[in-house]
Design brief:
The protein has about 170 residues and is of the alpha+beta class. Helices cover about 30% and strands about 10% of the residues. The protein is elongated.
Length: about 170
Amino acid sequence: MLNHYLLADEDYILARYVSILKKKKIQTVEDLLFDFPIKYEDYTIHSIHDAILDVPTILEGTIVSKVTVNYLKTNDKEAAFKLQEAFKKYLGEDRVEKDYQPMSASEDFSNIPNAFGIPYVFWGFGAYNKKEDILPNHNPAFAPDLHPTMETGTEAAIVAAMSYLEKNDIKKGF
C-alpha cells in the first residue's frame, strides 16, 4: 500500500532530497521505511586508554568552561599561538587549556580555508554538568550546559575576531 505514495508527490519533502533518495533507489514511502543503513554509529563511552588513532571514539572527560586551541591538521601555528595568547589575556589562563592535544574533531574544517590558501585556527569550547552523560555533538540529545557555555562561546568568538583584526585592546564586558 505504501509503495503507491511517491516521495516526489509529497509536498513536505524538498525536491533536492527526492533527487538524493532517487539516486539510492528510494522513490516511495515504502522504500524509505524499509531502507536500512549500512553502518551504525557506536556511542559507547570508552576510556582514553582504549582509544585507537583515527578510529572515532566517544571519550568521557571533564571540561570546565575552557577554551582550547587545536593544532589539528595544518593550523597556522602563528595564528594559533596569537589566538591562544589573546584567549589567555582576556579570559584568563585558568579558562584556557595549557597543553591541549590535537583531536579528530571536525576533520573537514580545514577544507575551505585550504581551498583558498588562507591561514586558519580550529578551536573549541564547552561545559557540562559532571552528572550528565557526555554525548557527541551530532547526537540529537547533545546539549552542553547553556551557562556558562553560551557566555564562554560569545566571549571566545569576539576575542578571536578582535585578535584576527589585530585589535588587542579588548576590555572586559566589551
